[in-house]
User: Fold this.
Amino acid sequence: MDEQNRGAAGRMAVETAALRYFLQGRRYHVALEAWDFAKDHHTGTRKDGVTPEFYHQIGMANFARTLDASLRHPQETFATIFLHDCVEDGNVSLGLLKDRFGPLISDATNALSKVVQGRKRSSDDVRRMIEEDPIASVVKGVDRANNQGSMLGVFSLEKQQEYIAETKDFILPILKTARRRFPDQEPVYENIKHLLTREIRLFEAMHAEILMRPLPEGPEDPEPALS
Assistant:
């Protein structure tokens, strides 16, 4: 393992330990159970081919620690963070989640799943379900902040621009609607919104600089052949 990867592995270990101590200190035992359940369904790597897949959930939950005091359902929100991809990517049934973790968590995970039992939902249906759920609307914003903030060096320039456009057209409006629907969580939605918009400004500035760079010159054209 090279020095850069060793440093990343050490950072992940520290962040994982800090998160577990936090959840234990809050006595969020259901969230800890959801952590261990979800980890068994996320055993691959992220799009960079190096970072463990489940580090996405760890990163999301560590950000959510800063929101804990303003969450309506804090323990259920952490549990949903760990479980949010299990139905869509891990083929876990919603019935199993409901039996094991309760309706608040299973309903939020359902709202966050674009595909359930092989059936793809429309973007309008997904948006409506997320906006109407006090847990899913938070987790979706936290999910996007983590994915958007880690796309440098993984997504192509075009993919980054598409992702930013989706954040503006889909994610930020969800946060705005949810903020009005669940005013007790207003500081949460504002925090996520400001993080997303700061990321967007940074990426757009980087993209503008990249697009202004002159294209590399190719090899000189060969002399035309004499007829």
The mean pLDDT is 90.
